[in-house]
Amino acid sequence: MSQQNDSTEAKRIETAEASLSVEDVKAYLRQHPELLANDPDLISALVPPSQSTGRNVLDMQHFMIGRLQNQVRMLRDIQSDLIEATSLNSIAREQVHAATLKLLDARSFEHLIEYVTAPDGLARILGIRAATVCIETANGVSGIGIRGVRVLEPGGVDRILGFGERCRLASHVRGSRGLYGNLAEEVQSEALVRLDFSPASPPGLLALGGFEAEQFHPDQAVDLLEFLARVVERCVRQWLDLPPAR
After folding, report:
1. Is residue 201 within 8 Å of 244, Cβ to Cβ?
2. pTM above 0.85, yes or no
3. 3-class secondary structure, 130
4. Full residue range of the structural domain in which residue 151 is found
5. 42 falls within a domain
6. Which of 112, 135, 133, 115 is nearest to 125 (CA)?
7. What is the pLDDT of residues 53-110, one digit of tens each?
8. Is residue 139 part of a domain?
9. Which of 179, 233, 189, 184 minimizes the C-alpha distance to 211?
């Protein structure tokens, strides 16, 4: 019985093969070019011709090897980018954590602002050129504020960031003297984060100016910058005895 079944199955396969011509196979592959790409098991089952084929025969082996080599190169590039991004993110996290501890160690409001704005303070630990704390004033006059805080005109934070925006990163910029003073010419990129000190005070801005044109750019994640801004808010609120933000 088993031999009869085997014989029947073999005849069925022979009949199917006889009815399916080479041209049918070619036509099907032309209509479904993604078939081989989506079926690695099928590719591995194929027996590609060697490189000693004739002029009119496509060298499938060469094509397959080239395709695999391109995929390996692409995977290596992706792996390299991920390793680099992970390393940079780890460095940035360590810098922000170190800066946070320094902010919490401030002995007074003046000491806090001095650390944030001095070239050898927050800027040095973050590896940037300049850092500034700004706050809007009610009298409409912008410039250098009391105790080293830079003063913006009413609505200045929304003008710089965009209405209601929390953060803005920009590459290839010309630093603003209104934000960075005499260091403005050395600022090539910047990160600007809104500061909400308290319902009892106007909004502010944390401005970080980078040495390099791509040190800050719009595609960067902003979670660490937002965290740093929240720490600055809390430190200012504590030293000035302001009511907490909503």
Report:
1. no
2. no
3. strand
4. 107-240
5. no
6. 115
7. 555 555 666 666 667 777 777 877 676 666 655 555 667 788 889 999 999 999 998 9
8. yes
9. 189
